[in-house]
Amino acid sequence: MTEWIDACSADDIENEDLIRFDHDGRTFAIYRSPDDEFFCTDGLCTHEKVHLSGGLVMQYRIECPKHNGVFDYRTGEALRAPVCVNLKTYNTKVEDGRVYVEI
């Protein structure tokens, strides 16, 4: 069963950036796109479990800070080696200035 979790304020994330969100022993990354949309993925790289929150966000992509693997954060698709396993993505919504993630 899934539930909507209040993750952060929309103002906590700049355009083309992300924040780390920890909940119930799991780590997530919440992104704000250049189009002012919000997305959420698992917060650890699928290659070596490095926190993506230290990575570079640009044009709908997150680059892992350790080995420079790249994912499309909208779909979780692995785009550049060494990553070859996609990230899991989660639905998001914004209500009253708060970002919610469906976990």
Automatic annotation (TrEMBL):
Residues 5-101 form the Rieske domain. Transmembrane segments: none annotated. It holds the Pfam family Rieske. Its cofactor is [2Fe-2S] cluster. Gene3D superfamilies: Rieske [2Fe-2S] iron-sulphur domain (2.102.10.10). Keywords: 2Fe-2S, Iron, Iron-sulfur, Metal-binding. Belongs to the bacterial ring-hydroxylating dioxygenase ferredoxin component family. This is Naphthalene 1,2-dioxygenase system, ferredoxin component.
